[in-house]
Description:
This protein is α/β, with parallel strands linked by helices.
Amino acid sequence: MENDRPTDGPGPIAPLRVAVTGGTSGLGLALVRELRGRGARVALVARGSERVERVAHGIVGDVARKEDIYPIGLQIVGRLGGLDVLVNNASDLGPTPLALLADTDCEDLERALATNVLGPFRLTRALLGALAASAREGRGAVVVNISSDAAVTPYPRWGAYGASKAALRHVTDIWNAEIESEGLRLLSFDPGDMDTPLHALAVPDADRATLKRPETSARDLADAIAAALPRPRASLGCPPPVAVEGGAS
Ligand SMILES: NC(=O)c1ccc[n+]([C@@H]2O[C@H](COP(=O)([O-])OP(=O)(O)OC[C@H]3O[C@@H](n4cnc5c(N)ncnc54)[C@H](OP(=O)(O)O)[C@@H]3O)[C@@H](O)[C@H]2O)c1
């Protein structure tokens, strides 16, 4: 259930408006629950209509499809009445089982780039106007792009995914440098190795007991978002500083 209670502070402050792509599983689902628990209004996006339609403000869409981006953006802004925070979390692993680059089909690399780089790029562009309006109103405007250690470490067999996450990280840093003076912030967040369906697909024989719970990473991510917002928003759950990658850490 949505929690629309006002945040604390000098007077009632409208709830934070957040959109999370890939919000029906793993980190995205845990983040939706964490943010709603902290009083935010959250829209989520995923392809699988059955799971999306079970939740409030669920939007069916594929961020890898160019023609889905504006319908997704319009529904986000329409349902939330604007947007303060966008979390580009939906992701594609490339070929599974993971493959050497020499054995990677172009179509698998294209899909990873479309989902992990072009999707966040297009959706952020489509929502820039709404985010800029939020920044002008002093509500804050933050875009979080979910990264990975594969963005910086060239792990064999993670070529399509790693290359896409490296590109996303660089896009994030450059865009943040270009736009920070206008009150918008873009940051990367590496959630660590988590026990999720994506991880199980990538590393089927992993010892799940050694993996982070997505709820733990979601709490850290919500804290990072709160830290990146203007001061009154700290009531989202003012955190101790957490390590985030990129220009906005
Ligand atoms: N798990 C890890 O250990 C780990 C480590 C480092 C970084 N990460 C990053 O953390 C993020 C979340 O990963 P996760 O492990 O939580 O993944 P997950 O459990 O597989 O969840 C992925 C979510 O994204 C949605 N999705 C996938 N492709 C989509 C598309 N094209 N358009 C819209 N939605 C799409 C999925 O729903 P549908 O399939 O219904 O669309 C689902 O809701 C990703 O960015 C991942 O790269 C994960």
